[in-house]
Amino acid sequence: MVEIIPVSHISEVLEVALTGESEKDSLINRLKDITGHALDRKVGGTQPGSSPSPQ
């Protein structure tokens, strides 16, 4: 069975995908160092629970 979990940002995808992993925080911090602010939730202009505007 596949469980679909709605998310609004890539950082939420990582949180859900890495649930229960002992190195989760370390991996997320390393990814933030590599990508800069790409994993910050405020980047992109959408608020949690809102839908992005079509382009």
Say how many strands there are.
Answer: 0
**What's the pLDDT, averaged over the residues?**
75
End-to-end CA span: 34 Å
Major β-sheet, in short? Answer: none
- Beta content comes to under 5%
Could you say which overall geometry the principal axes of the C-alpha atoms support?
flat
Q: Low-confidence stretches at least 5 residues in length (pLDDT < 50)?
A: none
How many helices in DSSP terms?
Answer: 2
Helical proportion?
25-40%
Reading the helices and strands in chain order gives HH
What structural class results from the helix and strand content? mainly alpha
Gyration radius from CA atoms, angstroms: 13 Å
Secondary-structure map with pairings?
Blueprint: H1 10-17, H2 24-35
Quick structural overview:
This protein has about 55 residues and is mainly alpha-helical.
Word description of this protein:
The chain has 55 residues and is an all-alpha fold. It has a domain at 8-41. It is built from 2 helices and no strands. The protein is flat and about 35 Å long. The model has no long low-confidence stretch (mean pLDDT 75).
Features:
mainly alpha
